[in-house]
From TrEMBL:
<dbReference type="InterPro" id="IPR049326">
    <property type="entry name" value="Rhodopsin_dom_fungi"/>
</dbReference>
<feature type="transmembrane region" description="Helical">
    <location>
        <begin position="37"/>
        <end position="55"/>
    </location>
</feature>
<feature type="domain" description="Rhodopsin">
    <location>
        <begin position="7"/>
        <end position="212"/>
    </location>
</feature>
<protein>
    <recommendedName>
        <fullName>Rhodopsin domain-containing protein</fullName>
    </recommendedName>
</protein>
<feature type="region of interest" description="Disordered">
    <location>
        <begin position="220"/>
        <end position="277"/>
    </location>
</feature>
<keyword id="KW-0812">Transmembrane</keyword>
<dbReference type="InterPro" id="IPR052337">
    <property type="entry name" value="SAT4-like"/>
</dbReference>
<feature type="compositionally biased region" description="Polar residues">
    <location>
        <begin position="231"/>
        <end position="249"/>
    </location>
</feature>
<keyword id="KW-0472">Membrane</keyword>
<feature type="transmembrane region" description="Helical">
    <location>
        <begin position="114"/>
        <end position="137"/>
    </location>
</feature>
<feature type="transmembrane region" description="Helical">
    <location>
        <begin position="187"/>
        <end position="206"/>
    </location>
</feature>
<feature type="compositionally biased region" description="Basic and acidic residues">
    <location>
        <begin position="255"/>
        <end position="277"/>
    </location>
</feature>
<comment type="similarity">
    <text>Belongs to the SAT4 family.</text>
</comment>
<feature type="transmembrane region" description="Helical">
    <location>
        <begin position="67"/>
        <end position="94"/>
    </location>
</feature>
<keyword id="KW-1133">Transmembrane helix</keyword>
<feature type="transmembrane region" description="Helical">
    <location>
        <begin position="149"/>
        <end position="167"/>
    </location>
</feature>
<dbReference type="Pfam" id="PF20684">
    <property type="entry name" value="Fung_rhodopsin"/>
</dbReference>
Length: 277
C-alpha cells in the first residue's frame, strides 16, 4: 500500500489533473484502486489480530463467546469490503479507463460504498476498544501497569479519531473532477490509519521487547504497587496445570506469556479455580 503511494506521487498524484499526462492519470487511478483493496484488507486483519489477542489473554468463557462472534463478523468484513471495492466496476478495467470517456462499462456508487465502510469501520473500532474494558476493570494491577495499559488503549482511540477525520475527507471522494488533487487527503489519512492500526496490534509484543531492554521501567517485578508474587508451573502426574508460588520471574502457563499471566489473574480465579489468583 505504501509503495504504491510513492509510485502514485512520482506519477503526479497531488497535482492538478490537467498537468499530468494521460498515461500517468491512468496509472494513478489504477494504483488508487489497488491501494483501496489493500486498505480494506489491512484494516480488517488488524482488527482480527486484536480480537485473537483478546481471546488468548482473557480465558473467561462468556467473554470468549463475544470475541468469537466478533471474529466471525470480522471474517465476513474483510472479503465483503475488499471484493466490493475490487468489483465495483464491470469490466474491472473500466475502473481506471472510465475517466477517458472512450470505454464502456458500469460502476456502482463508490462514494456511498466508501461512506458505508467508514461508518461501519468506526463502529467496529469502538466495539473492539470497549470489549475488554469490563475484564480490565477487574484486574488487580499496579499503578504503572494500569498506566501502560491505558496508553496502549489510547492508541486504539487515536485510530478511531483518524477514521473520523478520514470520513470527512470522503466528501469529494469519487465525485471530484480533479481526482489526482482532491483525493490526496483521503489517501494519506487511509495510509495513516492503516499504519497506526498495525502499530497498535504490535504494542503487546513491543512491551515484551521493552521489558528486556528497560526492565526497570517495564519489568513487572519492579512495580511496587503490583502483587509481588510470581508463579511457576509444577509438574504433577495428577494435574500438570497446578500453580505454586516461587521467587523470580513468571513463566508461561497454558501457552500464555508472563504478560498474559498478569492480565488474567482475576479471570483465571473464576474459570480455573486456582488458589491465590
Amino acid at each position: 500500500m505504501a509503495v504504491l503511494e510513492f509510485y502514485m506521487s512520482s506519477a503526479g498524484f497531488g497535482k492538478d489533473i490537467w498537468t499530468i499526462s494521460f498515461d500517468n492519470i491512468t496509472r494513478i487511478v489504477q494504483f488508487t484502486w489497488l491501494t483501496e483493496i489493500f486498505y480494506m484488507m489491512v484494516i480488517g486483519f488488524t482488527k482480527m489480530a486484536l480480537l485473537l489477542l483478546y481471546y488468548r489473554v482473557f480465558p473467561t468463557q462468556p467473554f470468549r463467546k463475544f470475541v468469537l462472534a466478533s471474529v466471525v463478523v470480522c471474517a465476513a468484513y474483510i472479503p465483503t469490503f475488499a471484493l466490493g471495492i475490487a468489483l465495483h466496476c464491470m469490466p474491472i478495467s473500466y475502473t481506471w479507463t472510465s475517466w477517458t470517456g472512450e470505454t464502456t462499462g458500469h460502476c456502482s456508487n463508490l462514494n456511498a460504498f466508501a461512506w458505508a465502510h467508514a461508518i461501519i469501520n468506526i463502529v467496529f473500532d469502538l466495539w473492539i476498544i470497549l470489549l475488554p474494558v469490563p475484564q480490565l476493570m477487574q484486574l488487580a494491577l499496579g499503578r504503572k501497569k494500569k498506566i501502560q495499559i491505558m496508553l496502549m488503549f489510547s492508541v486504539g482511540l487515536f485510530i478511531t479519531i483518524v477514521s473520523v477525520v478520514r470520513l470527512t475527507s470522503l466528501v469529494q471522494f469519487a465525485n471530484s473532477t480533479n481526482a489526482t488533487y482532491d483525493n490526496v487527503p483521503t489517501a494519506y489519512w487511509s495510509v495513516l490509519e492503516a499504519f497506526v492500526s498495525i502499530i497498535c496490534t504490535c504494542l503487546p509484543a513491543i512491551r515484551a521487547l521493552l521489558r528486556r531492554v528497560l526492565p526497570s521501567c517495564f519489568g513487572s517485578t519492579q512495580d511496587p504497587d503490583s502483587d509481588s508474587r510470581t508463579y511457576r508451573m509444577t509438574k504433577s502426574p495428577m494435574n500438570s496445570g497446578n500453580l505454586s508460588k516461587s521467587g523470580g520471574h513468571s513463566v508461561t502457563v497454558e501457552g500464555r506469556s508472563d504478560d498474559s499471566i498478569e492480565l488474567v489473574q482475576k479471570s483465571d480465579r473464576k474459570d480455573a479455580g486456582h488458589d491465590g489468583w
